[in-house]
Amino acid sequence: MSRLILGNCVDIMSGFPERAVDFILTDPPYLVGFRDRSGRSIAGDRTDEWLQPACNQMYRVLKKDALLVSFYGWNRVDRFMAAWKSAGFSVVGHLVFTKNYSSKSAYVGYRHECAYVLAKGRPALPQNPLPDVLGWKYSGNRHHPDGKARYQPATAD
């Protein structure tokens, strides 16, 4: 059964049996101390103490020969990569989603989102692999900082 659960991911996953999950798609805090124009922030976005425990739990609950796709903060890739590899994941792909607008500008205009494709074991190759560069369609969601779709999750029991 597919469902979304609202709660601390480490606490929630610790209640799952080992090798119980077929696939994980995650969009964790990017560790950049994000604040929007109205001052809202994202829980867990200032420090990374949750990152290694979360990666360890994802590896534990993911079935053998399965995939994790994780968005990440590109300017904190060293922290994410170290946590993924320490948990046991291997990198098998990288996705770039191009946007037709800049979410922020500094030395360059940030017009993309990135995600790594990570493997536990040796998952079967797809018959029709996705291209590694894909277009990004803005969802119109003004409540999410990068325009990703927002879902109303169930609460943890």
Structural class of the helices, strands and pairings?
alpha/beta
Would you state the CATH class? Answer: Alpha Beta
**CATH level-two architecture:** 3-Layer(aba) Sandwich
Model regions low in confidence, pLDDT < 50 over at least 5 residues: 149-157
Mean pLDDT: 86
Shape assignment? globular
SSE order in H/E notation? EHEHEHEEEEEE
Number of strands: 9
Q: Give the helix level as a range of percent.
A: 10-25%
InterPro entries: DNA_methylase_N4/N6 (IPR002941), DNA_methylase_N6_adenine_CS (IPR002052), SAM-dependent_MTases_sf (IPR029063)
Keywords: Methyltransferase, Plasmid, Transferase
Protein name: Putative adenine-specific DNA methylase
GO molecular function: DNA binding; N-methyltransferase activity
